[in-house]
């Protein structure tokens, strides 16, 4: 097992936008101005990898949004574990560069263009020589603070990318798998802890609907030999949240006072896509240090 630490600097004045997973509540004004604000503690993140073992040998994985953020980190991990990987997204130039870096394939897709999905899946099938797994990772968040700030355009963009796009790409994948009578398939959704809470903004609603889909689809797919699971990350370093993995990770919202790292989500994804988790389907695995659990003693 390899373990490494990341040293985290003292928090500077917080100028970051509200994070995607869930907003950090605004601090109450101090009763009287403190002479000197107490510095935030220096926090070390220790993350561990399972031993590399070709856990994904023979898996042929499409991952949407694989050019950056959580998707890129997962693609990297899957390649390391012996999978054939195809990354997809809108930015063809970035995909080409990242695919060369990782030693994988790439194919552009716009998740808002549902009519292109059957052709996309067919082409990915040819490029990979038989797809076995789909990772629905691509997503957007407008970070609206509440319903009053939501626009119809923003609502549509989030629903169409996060939910409608993933839904119909999944449908195209299932049609291919069932048409080929290919079993041992896997559909992994990257949901959010936000979908485990009630919500009034589109991002959270798309993830809550996705969680319902994961469970319903898992049962529907049992006879076809296709497993369906989800990961629900908490606030994780990426463009979406504005945290850089090698920058200041301080985040008072999480129990460890830091944001999570994309590698921590990737490790979970790797286990779920591997045959080590054959008995697991229909599960939403929260990578959030238990933040979304609602025990009665946490009530104010
Ligand atoms: N970071 C977090 O704290 C966090 C927490 C919970 C859940 N998540 C979920 O994790 C997933 C990845 O997020 P991230 O943090 O890695 O965000 P990110 O860095 O902003 O990356 C988003 C990815 O989605 C792709 N994408 C966006 N719109 C697309 C479209 N219309 N068609 C195809 N691809 C599209 C982007 O690629 P192109 O720009 O090239 O299209 C990009 O690769 C999302 O589903 C997000 O909701 C993230």
Which descriptors apply to this entry?
alpha/beta, Rossmann fold, two-stranded antiparallel sheet, 6 helices, globular, disordered N terminus, binds NADP nicotinamide-adenine-dinucleotide phosphate
Short description:
The protein is an alpha/beta fold and 300 residues long.
Per DSSP E runs of 2 or more residues, the count of β-strands stands at 9
CATH structural class: Alpha Beta
Q: Structural class of the helices, strands and pairings?
A: alpha/beta
Give the H and E element order.
Answer: EEEHEHEHEHEHEHE
The CATH superfamily label reads: NAD(P)-binding Rossmann-like Domain
Cα separation of the termini = 40 Å
Tell me what you see in this structure.
It contains six helices and nine strands. With 300 residues, the protein is α/β, with parallel strands linked by helices. The protein has one domain (2-8, 56-289): Rossmann fold (3-Layer(aba) Sandwich), CATH 3.40.50.720. The strands form two sheets. A seven-stranded parallel beta sheet has the order 5-4-3-6-7-8-9, with helices on both faces. Strands 1-2 form a two-stranded antiparallel sheet. Strand 3, helix 1 (69-80) and strand 4 (84-89) form a beta-alpha-beta unit. Helix 1 crosses helix 6. Mean pLDDT is 89; it is low at 1-20 and 22-29. Residues 20-21, 64-65, 67-71, 89-91, 94, 109-112, 137-141, 161, 190, 192, 233, 235-236, 238-241 line the site of NADP nicotinamide-adenine-dinucleotide phosphate. NADP nicotinamide-adenine-dinucleotide phosphate is lined by residues 20-21, 64-65, 67-71, 89-91, 94, 109-112, 137-141, 161, 190, 192, 233, 235-236, 238-241.
